[in-house]
Structure formats: structure tokens, C-alpha cells
Amino acid sequence: MRFQIAQSIAAVSGGEMVRPLEYQADWHGRTGVKIDKVYPLSTSKRCCDCGYIAPKRPIAIRSGACPEWGETHDRDINAAQNLLV
Ligand SMILES: [Zn+2]
After folding, report:
1. Fewer Cβ close by (within 10 Å): the C or N end of the chain?
2. How far is the CA of 45 from the centre of ligand 1 (A)?
3. What are 48-72's pLDDT values in tens digits?
4. Rounded to an integer, what distance in angstroms lies between the CA atom of residue 30 and that of residue 35?
């Protein structure tokens, strides 16, 4: 399911995806923050624990283990953790 969502997001141009998200954030009293697509050196590849940057991997690979700590991270959760910093 998440892979299908990621494919759908990739297929939609940036503006078409951002406007509804900004509307939803505003509607729910939240703050929407648009992140540059290259910020910061791919959030899904950078380990949120130690900063190790994994090699590029296909989007169908949804998790990965950090070779430094041995911890396995969900790709989306790891990216979200990096954006919170
Ligand atoms: Zn790590």
C-alpha cells in the first residue's frame, strides 16, 4: 500500500500535491512545511540515529538496516525522523 502511495506521489507534479496538503494542514490548524526535494541529501537514505547515508535503493525497498548501528529503519519513518531534526 505504501509503495503504491509513493508511486502516486511521484507521478503527481509538486504543485498539484502541495496545495491539498497545505489546505488540509490549515483546516486542521497545523503547519505545513514544504521541503526541497533534495533536502538534505535524501532523508530516506540518511540514518536518523547516526547520520550514515545508505547507497541509493529502489523505492520498493521500504526498510533498511544501518551498517553502523545494525538498527532496521522503516524508510518513511526514518525520513520523518530526519525532517523533525
Ligand atoms: Zn545509523
Report:
1. N
2. 10
3. 999 898 888 888 988 888 988 888 9
4. 16
